[in-house]
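so my prof wants the structure for this chain in the tokens format not the other one, which i didnt know existed until like an hour ago. anyway here's the sequence
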Amino acid sequence: MNRVNYFFEGIGKFKYGLPPKRWVEFCLSKEGWSVGTLNFIFCSDKYLQKINKKYLGKSYLTDVISFNSTPPNFIKTSNQPLVFGDIFISIDRVKENKKLYKTILAKELKRVMIHGALHLIGFNDKTQKERGVMAEKENMHIEDD
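here's what i got, hopefully its the right format
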């Protein structure tokens, strides 16, 4: 299996162009992590809202939800930590965010993707300070190619 995978759930094939999978690996390597397996599941608002309700007990719309999927008996074999996870992204929210933040779709998609990945490596966005740190990292990685 590939280390970075793209899946589409209930939206058909995404026609706007996704960043290269190596971009995700590059961004995480700059944070000191290697990719074990990362699955990006691109879906609709409705699909992600069901996930949010079922697993997190929340009924509101969101743009991204990340789930750690490190194997239970995983044995580390290198110095660099490995990240494993499933990152669900609502394409509907990404399109709305694009309008809200007056940006292009490609940049907003990268922002949401790296936001989900940052959660998997320990970053949070509960406080204003944490949100600031995450936004700084998102902006830095959006420019990476």
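also thought this was worth mentioning. The chain has one domain: 4-142.
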